[in-house]
Amino acid sequence: MRLVGDNVEIGVYPIKEALEIADEQGLDLVEISPNATPPVCKIMEYKKFLFEQKKREKVLKSKATKVIIKEIRFGPQTDEHDYEFKKKNATKFLSDGAKLKAFVFFKGRSIIYKDQGQILLLKLAQDLEEYGKVEQLPKLEGKRMTMFIAPKKKK
């Protein structure tokens, strides 16, 4: 097997000799590349290696961005004051970096006003143009018309 490590002369050794070298240094013999010919092994402290690997994964996981989706619900005949209030909340959500899912919920026979719902969502998209861009245009799914807005990147 090929032997690599910090205090080791790199070369090809028999398994017994490699184990003896690892024992002399008080370290472990770890197989790195079993498919290579000859297989590659490294002399290292295995517990320390596992600890550092977990530490690296934890740091990477903490740096990963989590996508938050906030929802805003409208009715097909939402009044101007309610619309303004919800628009203000949507602006806050987008400036905080969250995605926005705006939807119009049609109850009972109000489905006949689906054009009003679409106009309402498009008006919202136009009002929020400086804070985010439309990811998905209004789309009717069952009794709700949904639209997604993603926040604009901060410079």
Percentage of residues in strands:
25-35%
| Whole-angstrom Rg | 30 Å
Whole-number count of domains: 2
Helical content (DSSP H or I, runs of 4+)? 25-40%
N-to-C CA distance:
53 Å
Q: Could you give the order of strands across the largest sheet? A: 2-1-4-3
Average of per-residue pLDDT values: 88
Specify the CATH homologous superfamily of the largest domain: Translation initiation factor 3 (IF-3), C-terminal domain
The major pleated sheet works out as: 4 strands, mixed
- Name given to the CATH architecture of the largest domain: 2-Layer Sandwich
**What string, H for helix and E for strand, traces the elements in order?**
EEHEEHEHEHEE
**Classification by helices and strands:** alpha/beta
Q: Would you state the CATH class of the largest domain?
A: Alpha Beta
Could you tell me the CATH topology label of the largest domain.
Answer: Translation Initiation Factor IF3
Global geometry: rod-shaped
Number of strands: 8
Verbal overview:
- There is one protein chain.
- The longest helix has 18 residues, at 46-63.
- It is built from 4 helices and 8 strands.
- It is 38% helix and 31% strand.
- The chain has a 4-stranded mixed beta sheet. Strands 5-6-8-7 form a 4-stranded mixed beta sheet, with helices on one face.
- β5, α3 (80-95) and β6 (99-105) form a beta-alpha-beta unit.
- It folds into 2 domains: 2-60, Translation initiation factor 3 (IF-3), N-terminal domain (Ubiquitin-like (UB roll)); 69-151, 2-Layer Sandwich (Translation Initiation Factor IF3), CATH 3.30.110.10.
- The protein is rod-shaped and about 85 Å long.
- The model has no long low-confidence stretch (mean pLDDT 88).
- With 155 residues, it is α/β, with parallel strands linked by helices.
